[in-house]
Amino acid sequence: MPLHPLIVHFPIALLVLGGIIEIVNVFLKSDFWNKVGTVLIIIGVITGVFSLLTGDGAESFAFDHWGRSVHDIIELHSLLANISVIIFGLLAVIKILFKHPNTKFQILKNIPVRKGLITALVVLLSIAGIATLATTGHLGGKIVYENQTITTNNK
């Protein structure tokens, strides 16, 4: 049994919840929820990287048990998983640099940044990240559950 299915649910939960908090906090404007969203996204990205690293073992498992017929859906699943981690990684960097109250980097002090632009970018990245992550999870479920009957019938 590959490690991937055991790990993958942590980044999904953390990133979706973090993204939702970011969107809702546009209206709440709460420093507390700003920090919570940032922490969830950072931890989600870290666990997402671990999920990506365990994906090759799951791919080998899938090929061994279900054959090469799952290749295309696995490649799409992998691509969207990478895109999801990149989107949320970018969101984490933007949050740390521009939205987190405790990080005022010297190099950014003289760069004029419109607060509304950063907020819009946070919301758009949150929505895009949640959408790609949901699609990634859906494809992962299809890989397992649509091919589970093949494994069960072969026993």
Helix content: over 70%
Largest sheet: none
Strand content: under 5%
Specify Rg, calculated over alpha carbons. 18 Å
Element order, helices and strands? HHHHHH
- Contiguous low-pLDDT stretches (5 residues minimum) are none
Our count of helices gives: 6
3D shape: elongated
Q: Which structural class do the helices and strands define?
A: mainly alpha
Terminal residue distance: 16 Å
Got a strand count? 0
Mean pLDDT: 90
3D architecture notes:
The chain is an all-alpha fold and 155 residues long. Helices cover 81% and strands 0% of the residues. It contains 6 helices and no strands. It has helices at residues 4-7, 9-28, 31-66, 71-99, 115-145, 148-153. Helix 4 packs antiparallel against helix 5 (115-145). The longest helix is centred in the N-terminal third of the chain and has 36 residues, at 31-66. It is elongated, with a radius of gyration of 18 Å.
